[in-house]
Amino acid sequence: QVQLVESGGGLVQPGGSLRLSCAASGRIVSIYGMGWYRQAPGKQRELVASITNGGSTNYADSVKGRFTISRDNAKNTVYLQMNSLKPEDTAVYYCNADLEFLSETYSGSGYYKRSRSTYWGQGTQVTVSS
Predict the structure, then answer these.
(1) What is the DSSP secondary structure assignment for residue 89, as one 8-state letter?
(2) Binning pLDDT at 50, 70 and 90, where does residue 88 land?
(3) Range 72-81 average pLDDT
(4) For 8-21, b where at least 16 C-beta lie within 10 A, e where not — what string?
(5) Partners of 49 in the beta sheet?
(6) Which residues make Cβ contacts (< 8 Å) with residue 62, sequence separation at least 6?
(7) Cα 68 from Cα 115, distance rounded (Å)
(8) Exposed/middle/buried for 128, CB within 10 Å: 0-12, 13-18, 19+?
(9) Could you give the 3-state DSSP secondary structure of residue 101?
(10) Could you read off the pLDDT of 1-52 as tens digits, one per residue?
């Protein structure tokens, strides 16, 4: 019912830039927070940046000053502008959303209830060559 789709990943040279997008679709009532995580091979998934309902942002120390998270509430979309990319930024980047949505009380009923849950996107690959 709710889907997050990331886009914008690719291959860039060190010092280059990429802009990631994540669009949430479905019968969404409210989005309380959205964020970007990344996972490199053999490492734990880590928080890169997040933005709350009130617009407060948080960044990992490793990306402060280089990455910027923003959102377009009308489009239920969050962005991650990545500048001055480094080889160590190479990872699969995942979109995350804490949101409230409408779900059917049972399949095909046509009646809905409000639910809150956390969703993950499928991930987009970012590769920074050296």
Answers:
(1) G
(2) very high
(3) 94
(4) bbeebeeeeebebb
(5) 36, 59
(6) 88
(7) 30
(8) buried
(9) strand
(10) 799 999 999 999 999 999 999 999 999 999 999 999 999 999 999 999 999 9
